[in-house]
Q: What sequence folds into this?
């Protein structure tokens, strides 16, 4: 009873903060966009705000390079390669058509330069060089990409090359592109900073970043454009305003202008009509629960990840939450064990669900504790 009261009072405090005085505003329908498929998602909570044909399989064109970069960043994080590695450029990489970094066959180029050439200049040649350095061949690297896609839940994606050049077996969806984009930003924030670079110079040739959002929205800092005749004009964008980051995905637009306008319309709609709130930090104690047969009676519990809610602007006073336990708590319990969920709702509609975990170990109690708890449970 005491712990439940504590949780209720905490949420009462949240609900009477200054934002509660703002009147909720009706949210208009999302903008009509010139694109085959699109998606707008909140980075922190993963909540989808707008979608259309988000699960339709389409060619990704150079959006493929988001997964290529993610796979290379993972190799860097695991120590398998280094940014300073000198990559000998193969004839295959040098001959790769389309957008290029203009690396020369037989030359040595650092992994860092190749990454910037791929990210900023959209170099198809740089993508092949990276794939060969990481996995030995393009086909082996594609297998690595598909392994990462499976792990990230990208169930409607399949990669056959690192650059997005047309292939009948190369496909993805707007939803899957948002998944890898969010993983890249979350796991590799330092490397992600390269996506906001406006230009990159290599071999005496300066090329501008192809992402139009960087020049039209000061809050935008990524991510990647793409184009082939079959795929149309595509763009995965990201912008952060105050504490809210949104990810937009536009696929199959008819022109560069259409994809830029669609991306801006999505981002502006999201920032205008929604607001994000960080309610609890990962590992923060939000409740103390009764444990049976342990060396103590109480267990501190809290979220396994940050609890962030994105809600219609002005509806903060309608925000509430509840704890859902998976079962009665019996020792032993390991720190980090999932014991339920924190469910956040607005107007009785569930908007996010975050794992509730044990914040400490609770070993088994001695004979006296076990006997005492057995009697208490009996009554």
A:
């Amino acid at each position: 009873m005491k712990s439940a009261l504590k949780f209720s009072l905490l949420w009462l405090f949240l609900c009477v903060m200054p934002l509660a005085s703002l009147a909720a505003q009706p949210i208009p329908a999302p903008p009509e966009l010139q694109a085959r498929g699109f998606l707008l998602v909140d980075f922190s909570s993963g909540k989808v705000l707008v979608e259309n044909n988000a699960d339709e399989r389409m060619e990704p064109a150079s959006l493929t390079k988001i997964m290529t970069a993610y796979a290379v960043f993972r190799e860097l994080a695991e120590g398998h390669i280094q940014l300073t590695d000198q990559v000998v450029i193969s004839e295959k990489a040098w001959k790769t058509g389309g957008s290029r970094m203009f690396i020369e066959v037989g030359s040595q180029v650092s992994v860092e330069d190749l990454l910037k050439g791929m990210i900023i200049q959209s170099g198809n040649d740089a993508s092949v060089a990276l794939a060969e350095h990481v996995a030995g061949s393009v086909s082996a690297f594609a297998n690595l990409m598909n392994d990462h896609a499976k792990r990230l839940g990208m169930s409607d994606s399949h990669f056959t090359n690192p650059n997005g050049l047309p292939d009948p077996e190369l496909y993805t969806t707007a939803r899957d592109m948002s998944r890898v984009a969010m993983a890249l930003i979350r796991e590799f924030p330092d490397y992600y900073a390269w996506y906001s670079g406006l230009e990159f110079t290599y071999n005496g040739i300066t090329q501008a970043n192809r992402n139009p959002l960087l020049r039209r929205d000061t809050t935008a800092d990524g991510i990647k454009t793409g184009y082939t005749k079959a795929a149309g004009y595509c763009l995965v964008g990201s912008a952060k305003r105050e504490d809210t980051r949104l990810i937009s995905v536009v696929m199959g637009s008819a022109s560069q202008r259409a994809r830029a306008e669609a991306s801006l319309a999505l981002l502006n709609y999201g920032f205008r009509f929604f607001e994000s709130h960080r309610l609890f930090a990962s590992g923060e104690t939000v409740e103390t629960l009764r444990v049976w047969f342990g060396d103590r009676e109480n267990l501190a519990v809290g979220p396994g990840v940050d609890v962030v809610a994105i809600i219609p602007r002005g509806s903060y006073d309608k925000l509430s939450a509840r704890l859902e336990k998976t079962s009665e708590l019996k020792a032993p319990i390991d720190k980090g064990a999932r014991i339920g969920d924190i469910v956040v709702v607005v107007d009785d509609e569930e908007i996010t669900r975050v794992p509730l975990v044990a914040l400490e170990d609770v070993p088994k109690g001695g004979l006296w504790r076990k006997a005492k708890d057995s009697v208490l449970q009996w009554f």
Notes: Residues 256-273 form the longest helix (18 residues). Confidence is low (pLDDT under 50) at residues 1-23. The CA atoms of residues 269 and 372 lie 59 Å apart.
